[in-house]
């Protein structure tokens, strides 16, 4: 029995679809998007490893400032910004393009035409990002958080995205059937939200800068909404697709899904303003941000309830499936990070957490524990169907899960507990600031330890993926261009 057969039950095995016609159709759809999806996953993993190296550097520099201090291009500001963009635009966006477009194509039952252009657009996206990260390291950084990539690289990213995003829209336009699935709502909305956010922020901050506090408002509007209206809907779309698919049961409530989607769309757009509490911002605007952040409890509770009720009674299946192990971890993290985020918008809490490591821990909680863990689950489900092979090592999957789960948990706890203590001490005029800084060092060292766990998990993931990819390539080369699979389709 293969490793993968041991960790998948019969009901969750990737080859267990009962309808041969459906399997054949899905196999054709997978074949149409295989090259582009595999390229995006390869690119995503490449950026994940690069971002991990930069993250370790930044973590060590936080408590040991002279670490690699002899190199100007490796100063803390440049390394941290390179890490942020490698992970957000490199790992995050590439894995969204891979998993999101694949899910959209499958749900729409639409093959991807002119796939060569999609592949070329992906190549240029990664070229633009490479130019941007090198620009950051050489000192051309813009010094605007989440928009650090130099001006000369952003047009490449914008054009590339336009060519990539249109594929998801076209798949939806020419879908078969009238029913629209929950995952399709989130993916389609995100494909429109991201360019709107990026273009407005670039225009108002970089290309045609607005005056005064409008820049700060735009910056936080963009930074917060990249997570809430780009990463979040794509991760939720993936979770809504994977949980019912692997368990073989429908989502608990379609109507709760509707409520969750529209509550996210209405409230999240305003939520980022709460990060400017105490700044020279109109009071009504800050209050609107606080209210919107608190109202985000609605979609969070709705989504959490929907996922929990879908899984209830099948918790053993969750643990046995690598896909659901990562996905459910991410879904639980979504509930936790969002409730903490709503609490951080309250003025009494914000005056403690603002300007502390608590906010940094909160960001990692959302981008990694929620988004990244769910996308790992998406890759574990998608790749066996694209390559017609099982994952070669169950052991590496376990190392990946536990390395990442322990690593991100330690990081979030260290930064948020340490950040809360830091905030309390900074608000105490009797405690010297340098003493407060010294007191954060043990927590920052714990963050560096968490980075080692994450690195081990990422290496296990990369080794397992490329092992699977090269094995599939070797079989394909040996068997010829057409390989019949257990799904009954052509590879």
From TrEMBL:
Which GO MF term does the entry hold, naming one?
A: heme binding
Record's keyword annotation contains Membrane: yes
Query: Per its UniProt record, what PROSITE patterns does this chain match?
Result: COX1
Tell me the SUPFAM superfamilies matching this sequence: Cytochrome c oxidase subunit I-like
- Indicate the transmembrane segments per the record: 38-62, 82-105, 117-137, 149-173, 185-208, 220-242, 254-271, 283-305, 326-346, 366-387, 399-421, 452-475
Do the record's keywords include 4Fe-4S? no
Q: Name one GO cellular component term.
A: membrane
Q: Name one GO biological process term.
A: respiratory electron transport chain
Keyword annotations from UniProtKB, A to Z: Electron transport, Membrane, Respiratory chain, Transmembrane, Transmembrane helix, Transport
InterPro entries, from UniProt? Cyt_c_oxase-like_su1_dom (IPR023616), Cyt_c_oxase-like_su1_sf (IPR036927), Cyt_C_Oxase_1 (IPR000883)
Q: Where is the Cytochrome oxidase subunit I profile domain?
A: 220-491
User: Where are the annotated coiled coils located?
Assistant: none
Q: What protein name is recorded for this chain?
A: Cytochrome oxidase subunit I profile domain-containing protein
Q: Which organism is it from?
A: Coraliomargarita sinensis
